[in-house]
Amino acid sequence: MIQMYNVNKVYPNGVKALNAIDIHIARGEFVFLVGPSGAGKTTLMRLIFRDELPSTGHVIVDGRNIERLNASKVPYLRRSIGVVFQDFRLLDNRTVFDNVAFALRVTNTPYDEIQDRTNSVIDLLGLGHKKQFTPLQLSGGEKQRVCIARAIVNNPAILLTDEPTGNLDPDMSVEIMDILAEINKRGTTLLVATHNTQIVNKMQRRVIGLVDGRVTSDKAKGVYNY
Amino acid sequence: MRDSARGLSFHVQEALDGLRQAVVMNLATLSTVAITLFILGSFLLFMRNMNENLKLLRSQLQLTVYLKKEITEPQKTELVSRLQGDPSIVNYRFVGRDAALKTVKEWMGWSDFEVRDNPLPDSFDVKLHEGVDFDAFVSRAKSWPGVDDLSVGEKEVGALIKLLDLARSVGLVLVLVLGTASLMIIANTIKLTVYARRTEISIMKLVGATNWFIRMPFLIEGFLQGLLGAAIALALLLTGYPVVVARLSGIAPFLRFVTDSADLFRLSWQLVLMGVLLGLLGSLISLRRIAV
């Protein structure tokens, strides 16, 4: 599903974010990406949804070589990838329903389908009673769930989550991870960048360790260790 | 169909939100566009009226075709037949040199003055049809046999044309300067809206909205600014113009004014078109940066 071949990324200011990365992630896998701050986790994710281009090397996502992808095709690549950020990035002046439906509205989804899919995803994430609330009226965990709902509402093949439990207490973190595991069980390839040792150790999934832009470890059923 | 209508209403809704979010800025933009288009409209009306009056002036002008002193009878006969056959001419009248002298003397108050050698040549007074190509006739008539020169009030007409040209250049520069200012102000306003909505835009990009989908509300915003600006300018022009015409007609009854509704209609859509173009262009300038 995601292949990286000898990928290097150097930012214009000279910072070398990724160094000779070779990663292969199969369809339907659940992968933790761990490492200290500044290790290159976020850059690696941004390459996948083509927010950045590699300086050298190749990134192939669902059979598409992202650096050869025509600019007009990029939005269609992104429709097959859901992204969840630590800082939520929700629209505070819109309701939960509108925040989730936003992802469908801006991709020209038919009206009836927007209603159906938004309602069912909101219900799946247990927010059915808060559809008309705005993000300002929600707790951190609820906001993160709205964010996840928005990321999965158009049934993406890949879900990227950057520190999804970064702002949450331990109970809420477990709850969010359970939801992510459920989404993965339905066939979505999942990549989770995290600092949360407990969760990584508990879930026993593939763990890729990243330090200074290099892959230092890559173990199936791994633990938080880089 | 229903979905595309909903899609459009989404864009329009977003555009209206944009207008609401920065009311003062948008009012400033709107006034600038309106002022620019008002000046452009006034200028167009002025030029249209000037042209109309120039045409009138030309149609009322009488030409005098002066004959060479050494003109022969056969040449004179041919000239008469040319005058008769020319489709531009309404009528002509022969003025003998003695009659001409008499007219000049009467005009100058020299009735008693004895002129030994009459310096004036024979001539024809010629009146042209309204709207004929004046300059073409003059150059044609100059080549006719026995014609020495034409006195056509050419200098006066020429001066007027020069004045009109000057007015046109000044107006054009004014409109260009104001148009550029409007363009920049619209672009700036849209840029502020883009900045205010950067989170929305980043989410749109994230979830796979196309560039044109993201740009659409801002284009509509620019379009609406241009359209509203044009509407305000038009309202001012169409209410102010009849008042000005009434005043000027009182002062200068010999002037002719354009009041034809077809003319005013053409001016209206020209202004609306200009407004919309300004608005769209202004948004496009600030939207270049929104790219995947």
Overview of this protein structure:
The complex is a heterodimer of chains A (226) and B (292). In chain A, the strands form 2 sheets. In chain A, strands 6-7-8-3-9-10 form a 6-stranded mixed sheet, with helices on both faces. Helix content of chain A is 32%, strand content 26%. Chain A has helices spanning 41-48, 74-78, 96-105, 111-124, 140-152, 170-185, 197-203; strands at 2-10, 16-25, 30-34, 56-61, 64-65, 81-84, 158-162, 189-194, 206-211, 214-219. With 226 residues, chain A is α/β, with parallel strands linked by helices. By secondary structure, chain B is of the alpha+beta class. Chain B has 2 domains: 2-57 and 158-287, no CATH class; 62-152, Alpha-Beta Plaits (2-Layer Sandwich). Chain B has helices spanning 2-21, 23-60, 73-85, 97-108, 134-142, 154-196, 198-206, 211-251, 261-287; strands spanning 62-67, 89-95, 123-128, 147-151. In chain B, strands 2-3-1-4 form a 4-stranded antiparallel sheet. Chain B is elongated. Chains A and B meet through helix 2 and helix 3 of A and helix 1, helix 7 and helix 8 of B.
